[in-house]
Amino acid sequence: MSGDERIGLRHGAGGPAMRELVQRVFARNAVSREDAIGLADLDDAAALRVGDRWLVYTTDSHVVKPLFFPGGDIGRLAVSGTVNDLAVMGATAPLGLACAVVVEEGFETGQLLRIQASIEAACGEAGTRVQTGDTKVMGRGEVDGVVITTTGFGFAERLVRDDGLRPGDDILVTGSLGDHGLAVLASRSDLRVEGDLRSDVAPLNGLLATALRAGGDAVAAMKDPTRGGVASALHEMAVKSGVGVVLDEASLPVRPPVRALSELVGIDVLHVANEGKALIGVRPAETKRVLEALRAHPLGREARRIGTCCEERPGRVVLDTGFGRRLVSESDGELLPRIC
Amino acid sequence: MTESAPPHRDTPERLEFRDRARGRALLDALARWTEDRVDDPVSIMHVCGSHEQAIARFGLRAVLPPGLRVITGPGCPVCVTDAPEIDEAVALAEAGLRVATYGDMLRVPGSRGSLADARAAGARVEVVYSVAQAAELASGDAPLVFFATGFETTAVATAAVLLRDPPEGFSVLSAHKYIPPVMEIVAEMPATRVEGFLAAGHAASITGWGVFEPFVGRHGLPVAIGGFEPLDLLAGFAALVERIRTGRPGVDNCFPRMVTREGNRRAQAQLWRVFEPAGGVWRGITRVPNGNLRLRERFSPFDARRCHAALLERAGGAPGTPTRAGECRCGDIMAGIATPLDCALYGSTCTPALPVGACMVSSEGTCRIWHEYGGAHPLAEQAG
Predict the structure, then answer these.
(1) How many angstroms separate the CA atoms of B335 and B282, rounded?
(2) Which residues of A touch B106 (CB under 8 A)?
(3) What are the pLDDT digits (tens) for B26-48?
(4) Is the CB of residue A322 less than 8 Å away from at least one CB of chain B?
(5) Which of A272, B63, B140, B295 is geometrically suited to a Cys-Cys bond with B303, CB 3.0 to 4.6 A?
(6) Would an 8 Å CB–CB cutoff place A295 in contact with chain B?
(7) What is the C-alpha to C-alpha distance for residues B116 and B378, in angstroms, rounded to an integer?
(8) For A329, nearest residue in chain B (alpha carbons)
(9) In which band, very low, low, confident or very high, does the pLDDT at B305 lie, cut at 50, 70 and 90?
(10) Which residues of B touch A339 (CB under 8 A)?
């Protein structure tokens, strides 16, 4: 990436282009440290060793169009995104959040109140609160509606990384795939399909706490498959862990309206963002116990094993379609519509 | 591999087009029927980007038997749109007219850049999802040219809009193409050595499968009409292989839930009321007699080539040369002579983010499809 290159939308799509941007620009001088997880590690959050525990912290800017969509809004998204980044690192009891809001001139106060109510409701579900914040107003056209940045922190007794997979480990998902991205796409483009297309946006810390209690050290790796979807999240886990992953397509939980819309517009569900799901790598001996714990929680009733790790093809993700096999690619973030 | 039944059984699963056991049975049969052809594989060509998508999507190339070769034909309407046709659209946009087209078409380079380049330089180019949407954007005060690409399936939609009293100011720059004639051309290309064709199910739902009978008579090659679910494809391959090994060319309709012998007569009537076949160059292939669809005389008021003739003439002159035409192998890939892996640019210089050739731009293009579904890593050699 040279100094002349311009930033494109694909640099924010969660795939290879975004990783390259972060590595070449923001993490350019980052170094790995024993007692700290940071930019060099490109994990879901940063962590500092404090005594015998880890202080986990992260920050996340939220921009979504439309601001209100079936199943949620930017407020719920801003809380869930940050809480989930902490939770997949093992910090499932967030101590608090900070929230910075940039608002466009002319934005209705009524809408801000709706967003704030939604932030409070999501904090209630996650058992945390916004303790400080910042507000800025920009001129009309200088920002699109509202941008919310949330920062969160919490302690982890045991840090769960995204590089802990070993051959033989099982890959679990906590529920159905593709709901968030396709609900937003449908509401943006006014595409209607039969059935209830709703975002899955939700704070997962309670759910992941039960999984960690049930699985203990056997929970080897976790990641939330947001931008770039399961494809990007699993690639990162596979590359960092040095294992191959084989997904069983028949096991992927996908709701019928999500399947219908994804096939209609030609988007692979594995590339679609989720905002209320986690991928969990588990040592096989504890798979059953972790699945039972997940399924006992309201947000994990549809948890399933969707794949396994192997020694072959390290860093690659293979999809067994039941008819054949293919590699799963990461999305480049440019989805053109089909024409015939 | 799971402990309980999947929580979501989707419709295609229930409808058995994705019955995995039947898929395996068909693959076993294909392997048995082609085991004596491992050194000289049976060559089947499909002529549809959606077929390649389904083959890639379901990972079929990793499990096809070594005695069977499925090659890709000129099945991507965007990819076969010739550079001078794109130049016309670019010229109209640069002349200040609004031009609407399908998203796939935007970045395909003509000889003097693409519509996306024109837009970046200030021209008004809009992406639409349908011809009807394009017509809605046009009015007498705001003329709009719809750059129409696609095979007979898409051409029928264009015809329907033109027959329904389109708004003043709306015109069509037709780059529509008609599939049956190009199959004649490819069948006679010595380099391809095609032994049978898998014809596109959705196109055949318009034309009917009877349209292929004269082709079979002329070339002695079997044709199967194929759908887009994995079992549709495998059944199509099986029908073709069976006819090839027994030496009985004919047409098999392997997509009977959609395709009849006579096809959609109303759609055909609309298509031929609006369009007439004309010879034209298919990019990378050759001149195809009757391969293009041109607006008939009575639709002149909506034919961009006629109502904006002066603008096109003014912009004319010697076309430029695409800068990297020499390196890109799109043409050979569409003719079934090469695969993306034979192209030095594939996956390195040429990616979906920075495409060189049309085959990497369009979602129907072979290079784009291979790239999207994980490239062509040799999974077949690593069983298990």
Answers:
(1) 10
(2) 336
(3) 999 999 999 999 999 999 999 99
(4) yes
(5) B295
(6) no
(7) 35
(8) B374
(9) very high
(10) 77-78, 102-105, 149-150, 154, 362-364
Q: Is the model's pLDDT at A39 over the cut of 70?
A: yes
Query: CB distance A340–B363 less than 8 Å?
Result: no
Q: Do A326 and B153 touch (CB under 8 A)?
A: no
Contacts of B247 (CB under 8 A, 6+ apart): none
Q: Could you give the CA distance from residue B377 to residue B379 in angstroms, rounded to a whole number?
A: 6
Give the whole-angstrom CA distance, residue B347 versus residue B355: 9
What three-state secondary structure class fits A100? strand
- Per-residue DSSP letter, A27: T
**DSSP code, position A11:** G
Q: How far is B321 from B383, CA to CA, in rounded Å?
A: 45
For residue A237 the two structure tokens come to 């886990």
Q: Is B113 left (phi over 0), alpha (psi -120 to 50) or beta?
A: left
Q: How far apart are the CA of B317 and the nearest CA of chain A, in angstroms?
A: 31
Q: What angle do CA A92, A98, A100 make, to 5 degrees?
A: 135
Q: A-contacting residues of B 183-222, CB under 8 Å? A: 202
Range list of β-strands (E), chain B? 42-46, 68-72, 98-102, 125-128, 144-150, 170-176, 196-200, 223-226, 251-253, 275-281, 287-295
Residue B356 C-alpha, separation from nearest chain A C-alpha, in angstroms: 16
B293 φ, ψ to 5°? Answer: -110, 115
**Hey, is the C-beta of A324 within 8 angstroms of any chain B C-beta?**
yes
Question: Within an 8 Å CB–CB cutoff, is residue B129 touching chain A?
Answer: yes
The single residue listed with the structure tokens 């096991």 is A251
**3-class DSSP state for residue A71?**
coil
Radius of gyration of chain B measured on its C-alpha atoms: 21
Identify the pLDDT of residue A339: 27
CB proximity under 8 Å: B 226-255 to A: 230, 234
Q: Which amino acid is at A256?
A: P
Distance CA A155, CA A158 (A): 9
Amino acid (1-letter code) at residue B329: R
Burial class (CB in 10 A: 0-12, 13-18, 19+), A62: buried
What tokens appear for A156 in the block? 């982890």
Q: Which positions in chain A touch B363 (Cβ < 8 Å)?
A: 266, 336-339
Which of A95, A8, A87 is CA-nearest to residue A43?
A87
- Per-residue pLDDT of B293-302, as tens digits, reads 999 999 999 9
